[in-house]
Design brief:
This protein is mostly helical and 276 residues long. It is built from 15 helices and no strands. It has a domain of 66 residues: Leucine-rich Repeat Variant. Helix 7 runs parallel beside helix 9 and helix 9 packs parallel to helix 11.
């Protein structure tokens, strides 16, 4: 009897040929599930809808307040200026700077404070405004309200101009401690006016770092510089300053001697009152 060749089992053929394909499909399904982003979840890069709406709301409010700056009622304009300052957005800078030219002084004053609130974003524009003679005083005052090192050089430069030196001095005093180093360096400036304004500003800031430089100014050849240095040391109120100005009781200038005598007398009286 002739032996018939063994026929392959159909079930075995399926398991050998189809198993790799089934495994591949399963792997593809798992990768697809891992990469899929549910439709209801926002993209990681896109901001939440609430944030977008809030930003749009702020933008709309800024536009509204800018439009109110054109109102015929100065109280409305002033309120708009105050609101823009509180927002502190960079888009508020130019409208607020334009408000420095407003016909009402109360609006202009509010604009100075508002630009100070906006702060650093306003510095570059305000520095450019220093070129405008009519608006320079207001720009100087604004810069004095902004704690940004970029305002120092422009303000120090204004000490060279007789028309604006007092405004610049006031602005530097408003800045306080950040201006002390520049003012101390200005005590050696070739310009006598700059030296005097620096002395005045240092006395009003009352930073202890200015005591030794001011003591050196008591030897200045100019009598008014010596007098101003003595007065600034009086304002600071340090004992080193009191001891340093005593030799000026014999100063060759009568005005200096008289002023120093009054300073020392007042200093002694204040000390006695404090110890009583």
């Amino acid at each position: 009897m002739t032996e018939q060749p063994e026929q392959p089992d159909q079930s075995d053929e399926f398991s050998m040929s189809d198993a790799p394909e089934a495994a591949t499909d399963a792997l593809a399904d798992r990768m697809s599930d891992a990469l899929a982003v549910p439709a209801e979840q926002p993209s990681a890069e896109a901001p939440p809808a609430e944030t977008v709406l809030e930003e749009e709301k702020v933008k709309d409010e800024i536009d509204i307040q800018i439009d109110l700056l054109k109102d015929s009622d100065w109280t409305v304009r002033r309120e708009a200026v105050v609101t823009l300052g509180e927002m502190g957005d960079e888009r508020c800078v130019v409208p607020l700077a334009n408000a420095l030219r407003d016909g009402d002084w109360q609006v202009r004053e509010a604009a100075i404070d508002a630009l100070g609130q906006v702060g650093s974003p306003a510095v570059e524009y305000l520095v450019r405004m220093l070129r405008d003679w009519d608006i320079r005083k207001s720009a100087i005052r604004c810069l004095g309200k902004i704690k940004d090192e970029r305002v120092l050089d422009p303000l120090m430069q204004q000490l060279h101009h007789d028309e604006f030196k007092d405004d610049a001095t006031e602005a530097l005093v408003d800045l306080g401690a950040p201006a002390v180093e520049r003012l101390v360096n200005a005590l050696k400036d070739k310009n006598e006016v700059v030296r005097k304004q620096a002395i005045i500003a240092l006395g009003r800031i009352k930073d202890p770092a200015a005591i030794d430089p001011l003591i050196e100014m008591l030897k200045d050849p100019d009598w008014f510089s010596r007098l101003t240095a003595a007065a600034s040391l009086e304002k600071i109120g340090d004992e080193r300053g009191r001891q340093a100005i005593k030799p000026l009781m014999k100063d060759p200038d009568l005005v200096v001697r008289m002023r120093v005598e009054r300073i020392l007398a007042a200093w002694k009286q204040n000390k006695e009152t404090a110890n009583a």
